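Sequence in, structure out. Go.
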Amino acid sequence: MRAVLQRVSEASVAVAGETVGAVGPGLVILVGVERDDGEEAAARLADKIARMRVFDDDTGRFDRSLLDVRGEALVVSQFTLIADSKRQKGTRPDFSRAARPEEAEPLYERFCEALRDLGVPVQTGIFGARMQVSLVNDGPVTIILDVDPTQTGRSQ
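Output:
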């Protein structure tokens, strides 16, 4: 699984002009699911994100997590994160490593559930829909995370 985190002061996602999810301070999390990912990868990624210290402490140092600041998460599925442009001869990205929708959606839902189980308030987009994401990136802070589906155990 791959995720792009953006620390935000506010964010929302709309489908067909209607807002379907919105958060205040916290993270926008774009999530891509690969073919070999499983439930363990989804849970590990959620744990890592919830505990990742990307929020400032009183001295301005990254020392607080989403859990520490009681931030919210806006989670949006985005299969294009799995694009491979390195091996392509042309200019069209290769999406062959992306999980099929019927495999990806349950893992996306498991990821959201794992965040909620950790105590993170979660809003979402609509899986597979064409969405418009609006956000105010705070910092800006943007981090890319990959979770290897072959690893087991709690992330560090």
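Check: The radius of gyration is 15 Å. The chain has two helices and eight strands.
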